[in-house]
Write a structure and sequence with these properties.
The protein is mostly beta strands. The protein has helices at about 5-15, 25-30, 120-125, 135-140; strands at about 35-40, 45-50, 55-60, 65-70, 75-80, 85-90, 95, 100-110, 110-120, 145-150, 155-160, 165-170, 175-180, 185-190, 195-200, 205, 210-220, 220-230.
Length: about 230
């Protein structure tokens, strides 16, 4: 699922536009056919982009966001300055885009992208730095939790686990969970009471900060989690 530094640089060059005096309209506002808000709260706006070959989107802009691809596709991207290029996306691709202004045309495959926009990043507010607690999931269970990107606004990690995997009691700060696969886990909260939790492909959840342990009962866990630092 990881995005290499070289690929991230290439994608940023293709996606990011030059700065102009006037920005194009927001993607959701000008192109609701392909961009749909699926979650919106005080800390984050999450949208889903879906498109098939032959589809196109007019010139639009994005606030800074985490880009998570669930599909495989090739697009022709055209930036506000008229430069263009091909963009290939694939399942599990993760990237931070600092703001973009572009239009696109679908050439092949299926676009399925989840965009996670921290509202603090859109306003330019940088939250204070806070060190993760000793109970942090990545600290307690690095076998299954791997950080793949971090900046002032987000920490993005992947959770990968197969049948029979277990994770000791740990905590999460407020985060957006994006599931790539189907799984069933037995979760146990701090009160010691177990419950069954199901994950499905393309499922998107907001969690306000949780404490739990888990054991995978069926399927496989493949999750991208985007922690929103301003929500801590």
């Amino acid at each position: 699922m990881r995005t290499t530094a070289a690929l991230a640089g290439l994608l940023t060059a293709v996606l990011a536009s030059g700065l102009g005096a006037q920005r194009a309209p927001d993607a959701v506002a000008i192109d609701p056919t392909h961009h749909n808000v699926i979650l919106d709260n005080d800390h984050v706006r999450v949208w889903e982009a879906l498109a098939a070959p032959g589809a196109s989107s007019p010139m639009h802009s994005h606030s800074p966001f985490a880009f998570v691809s669930l599909g495989r596709a090739r697009l022709r991207m055209t930036n506000a300055d008229g430069t263009s290029g091909l963009l290939d996306v694939h399942p599990g691709q993760v990237l931070w885009i600092d703001g973009a202004e572009h239009r696109w045309t679908m050439l092949s495959g299926q676009v399925h992208v989840i965009g996670v926009e921290p509202k603090a990043a859109a306003s330019g507010r940088v939250p204070p730095r806070v060190a993760p607690p000793p109970t942090d999931a990545v600290t307690v269970d690095p076998t299954h939790h791997h950080v793949i990107f971090e900046n002032d606004h987000v920490r993005i990690f992947e959770v990968l686990a197969g049948p029979g995997a277990k994770s000791a009691m740990h905590t999460h700060v407020p985060l957006v969970v994006i599931s790539m696969a189907k799984a069933r886990a037995r979760m146990t909260g701090p009160d010691g009471k177990p419950f069954i939790f199901d994950l499905n492909p393309a499922q998107v959840l907001w969690m306000e900060g949780v404490q739990h342990s888990w054991e995978l009962v069926a399927g496989r866990v493949a999750v991208i989690a985007v922690e929103i630092k301003a929500a801590r």
